[in-house]
Amino acid sequence: MTTELISSAISEARRHLEQNPQHATGEDGAVHARLRGGLVVEASDDDDHAVVTDMPPSVGGGGSGFKPGGLLRAALASCDATLLAMEAAARDIELSRLEVVVESSSDHRGMLGFDGAPPGPLEFRLGFRLSSPDASEEQLRSLVEYVEAHSPVGQALRAVPSEITVEIS
To answer: For residue 10, is it within any domain?
Structure first.
């Protein structure tokens, strides 16, 4: 989809929700996870999109798919990249490069039942790499600030400390 089409769709969605605030909230589609064997799990949504996860051999998996924590980082990275592209289009900013890298640190004892060890990420590190032929560094940094304030996945994970860097080229 072109920047113009994205911008038009965003404008229409914003206009619709301003005029119809009762349409702003609702149920999200369910995701169903099914064990396929060993530690291989297939998760699918109501539209038949699917992803497969597997754990590494060190904990009994086959390493044949994303680890579930990798999907968490992928969800954050893709959510932030998508939202940034949407807002760039809404602001009529052309992006020649958009990359979001999400890394995390974890204490793996938590998922193995060690008392006192948290079973999830201890921190996230987000890196935004942006380039634009027509936007200033200030405009690109403003996009990142917008994303950090409005990312649905980011907001869901906000209890975990996050370090954010922005690289403009």
So the answer is: no
